[in-house]
Amino acid sequence: MDHAITAEELAEKIKEISIAEFFEKNRHLLGYENPTKSLLTVVKEAVDNSLDAALEARILPTVKVWVKEAGQNRYKVKVEDNGPGLKPSKVPVAFGKFLVGSKFAYLKQLIGTQGIGIKGVVLYAQLTTGKPTKIITKTKKEVHEFELMIDVIKNEPIIVSHKKEKNESGKTGLTIETEVEGRYVEGQQSILNYLKLISIANPYAEIIFNSPRGKHVFKRATKKLPPLPREIKPHPYGVEIGKLKRMIMLTKHKDMVSFLTKEFSSVGKGSAIKICKLARIDPKTNPKNLTHKEIEKLHQAMNKVKLKAPPTNCLSPIDEESLLNGIKKEFPAQFYSVAVRKPTVYRGYPFQVEVALAYGEPLKNEQAMLLRFANHTPLLYNAGECAITKAATKINWRNYGLSQSSNSLPNAPLVILVDVISVWIPYTSEGKQAIASYPEIEKEITLALQEAGRKLGRFVSKMKRLHQLKVRKNIFQAYSTVFAEYLAKITKKSEDYIKKKVEEILNKGEVEESKEVKKEKQEVVEV
Amino acid sequence: MDHAITAEELAEKIKEISIAEFFEKNRHLLGYENPTKSLLTVVKEAVDNSLDAALEARILPTVKVWVKEAGQNRYKVKVEDNGPGLKPSKVPVAFGKFLVGSKFAYLKQLIGTQGIGIKGVVLYAQLTTGKPTKIITKTKKEVHEFELMIDVIKNEPIIVSHKKEKNESGKTGLTIETEVEGRYVEGQQSILNYLKLISIANPYAEIIFNSPRGKHVFKRATKKLPPLPREIKPHPYGVEIGKLKRMIMLTKHKDMVSFLTKEFSSVGKGSAIKICKLARIDPKTNPKNLTHKEIEKLHQAMNKVKLKAPPTNCLSPIDEESLLNGIKKEFPAQFYSVAVRKPTVYRGYPFQVEVALAYGEPLKNEQAMLLRFANHTPLLYNAGECAITKAATKINWRNYGLSQSSNSLPNAPLVILVDVISVWIPYTSEGKQAIASYPEIEKEITLALQEAGRKLGRFVSKMKRLHQLKVRKNIFQAYSTVFAEYLAKITKKSEDYIKKKVEEILNKGEVEESKEVKKEKQEVVEV
């Protein structure tokens, strides 16, 4: 018989869940829903962390990855870097407690920011193999080795073992070693492809991959580290009123002008006074004395007053040359174009879009290939939900001379590379494989693609014109003997003489044309 | 100048983040990435909760929804139900603290289980309008009205106001009233369509929608409440070793047989002994004394011994008649087929797939329309990432006589309804709009679709055969006069006599055929 539950009984059952237990039950949120994707996620989380740490410490990164079979559907994964290592006392929480991180609180362009990723590796390992994960951190003086698990009910690290010794070599770095359920594949959505793509977008990194099927080395293409992205305050555009209220609650500044100029980026004294004026608030008011109505007006004014774009040094796009070199190295083609948008904001977070296109022979793909990146990290899954895919399929590529079915990528030998960089990438899930469709972000991707697309369009139409010219010339050539014969009769010159002259003219045309063709065909780059 | 960060400095920055702050920064994870989707999410979270509460309390639900414009891109949303209400003292945490819930801890088929959804509404409201959300709970004796916000830094509720009075009417229920940023649309991904689809899959519910453009009533189609799904223990198949270890750590049972029979579903004494034998463990062993090696063997044995499927009363599929009535009501067609799979398990969680197909006139859609449901709730977003979409597009529908481009839905006047029900739906994000691609789940969806597809295929091929017959008959009829003439000459009977006979035969054929056609054409149902 059904037993009806009363309000009292329903309430009794209410209990608190730890975030670790939540993720254990929902491990697919972290990218662990099937063995193939799970193995990739393990490698990705570790490599992303290594690159971030090296970049912050201004060290040219060398990352070594081992993936080794350890039984049926079981793999040992080891990732070793030459970064600064992590202070030993912080290792347990950094790897064994969810929602603890060094990067969440401040706005800075990095790959990992959520305080979740690497803990997911430890959780997934203990869940699927029951084994702890080994972390070795080498700081200048000491080497510490931890074996860690996570107390899922409490969201606290369990230190299974901890050894330390002197660091004889003095070399720093961090190593993570774990055993997980997985499946190793090669192809589009694979560890190998992920590492290949990451080396395109991070050419200053050296990556060595010891796969179950052999060794791959992705060499360092430049020794130039990208500039370190700066930490930044939120930009006033798009900051929600709820966040503004909290900023007011927490601020130490005692008047509106210092509050606006110190707590936000891109607001000078003049803009601050303009904002106050528009909101009819005295610039000397203590922000804490504002009423809800006044805060509402302030919020509206902040979005209306014309402000500078966010400073560019908070973002570190791939420079155009490196981007071109990267795509050229992996995708030889006839034509390249690049478009880099200026930084703009969504919800107060600065972001920027850069796009590279590679087109034509020797590329042979029938449908365009879309390479998605977020903060220079390749996104290999969840393409359908990604703002990049949405923008790229909504664009009318027929405008640029390509054929396209509706809501699809164009049918052309084309590679489309899109990199969205931001101080806060809005991933569609904690597994960080797609970018959420905030309208501002989708719009910027569209504009960048259109900019690069227009350059491509000019090339495509030139190539079509040259092709038509050539067809016409071929027809003329075919008739040239007959033509020479008639001309000889009319001009009373010898047929041979006429033929020679005609050939000369045709060849001259050919030489000029081939110059033009060469210019167009051989790796044309429009930036 | 770049300032290199040392291990020590990096570690200092590590800090703990509250889950509320995490979701505030990542509001897109909860379904709030653009105004249109956000408004739908607000309504969906409230309606889902109302249906769950009514079902648990065995009350036929009546849910009233108001959406009203309140300024540019601002809407007031109110959802009122006739459920049991919620115990007033529990209201603040139930609505104002993330990862607290009544449903997370136990395995039971319900719409809401995460301890997240409805808190997202309160968070999104305060973030985008700065306003608290009003909750009115009516239990039999009292009416309590709360205005709530969330302290994001602490993940704790803030009670802005609290009033109580006697419940004069004695009617119970819960009302939520909030003001949010949003955009109201009608169409596929809209509140209106969401409510229409929910009424198909939950025909016992009455839903009244006062939209900004007018009133819509979705009437109750049956007074029969579905049986209350039972709470259940995990099934041994697919339970990860990490989870098994924790179950062993937490169990109160002191020997293997009671541990296995009491902590799992579908394990009788016989199966428990078989499992122990296969794992070479004495059935009398205290589980807490098992070594890691023994637990590994136990884990393998649990997955190898043949066990009963999970009990069916933990899942409450829509009964076939209701499913057919629902789809017939909204999608009149020539042919229907239904397939309901038996419950099976992924990761120890029982789940079940049911499928309904509607095909042919008056349906006119060129490409099949896919309706996705999880625990009888429609999924309107993130189709590309959903296990249902993946299964439906991977199937070779050409086997069933339909045309199809590769990796697409078939091109046919077809509606495909798939409902996945489970004690734990693995949503791809906290926004609960798509089901993660666990291999076991995708496989069951595929099998269900193939089962229904084969029935459809028989109908399609019969229809094709009948069509060919008709074409042949028409040709024969066209030649019948000539035929009669020749026949008359040969048989020496009068031409008129022969003509009459031929016509008789043809008509007889037609009568029989039209009987068959009628049988096939008029709403054929294969179950």
Account of the 3D structure:
The structure is a homodimer of 527-residue chains. The first copy, chain A, has 527 residues and is α+β, with helices and mostly antiparallel strands. Chain A folds into 4 domains: 200 residues, Histidine kinase-like ATPase, C-terminal domain (Heat Shock Protein 90); 64 residues, Orthogonal Bundle (Helicase, Ruva Protein, domain 3), CATH 1.10.8.50; 146 residues, Ribosomal Protein S5, domain 2 (2-Layer Sandwich); 68 residues. Chain A is 39% helix and 20% strand. Chain A contains 14 helices and 17 strands. In chain A, strands 7-6-5-8-3-2-9-10 form an 8-stranded mixed sheet. In chain A, strands 11, 12, 13, 14, 15, 16 and 17 form a 7-stranded mixed sheet that branches. In chain A, a hairpin with a 3-residue loop joins strand 5 and strand 6. Chains A and B meet through helix 1, strand 1, helix 2, strand 4 and helix 5 of A and helix 1, strand 1, helix 2, strand 4 and helix 5 of B. Strand 1 of chain A pairs antiparallel with strand 4 of chain B, so a sheet runs across the interface.
Top keywords for this entry?
Ribosomal Protein S5, domain 2, globular, Heat Shock Protein 90, 527 residues, 7-stranded mixed beta sheet, 4 domains, alpha+beta, Helicase, Ruva Protein, domain 3, homodimer
Q: How do the helices and strands line up, and which of them pair or pack?
A:
The structure is a homodimer of 527-residue chains.
Chain A: H1 7-12, E1 15-16, H2 19-25, H3 35-56, E2 62-69, E3 74-81, H4 91-96, E4 100-101, H5 117-129, E5 133-138, E6 142-151, E7 156-166, E8 173-181, H6 191-201, E9 206-211, E10 214-218, H7 241-250, H8 256-263, H9 269-279, H10 292-304, H11 320-330, E11 335-340, E12 344-346, E13 349-359, E14 369-374, E15 377-379, H12 387-394, E16 414-422, H13 439-491, H14 495-521, E17 524-526
Parallel strand pairs in A: 2-9, 11-17, 14-16
Antiparallel strand pairs in A: 2-3, 3-8, 5-6, 5-8, 6-7, 9-10, 11-13, 12-13, 13-16, 14-15
Helix pairs in contact in A: 3-5, 8-9, 9-10, 12-13, 13-14
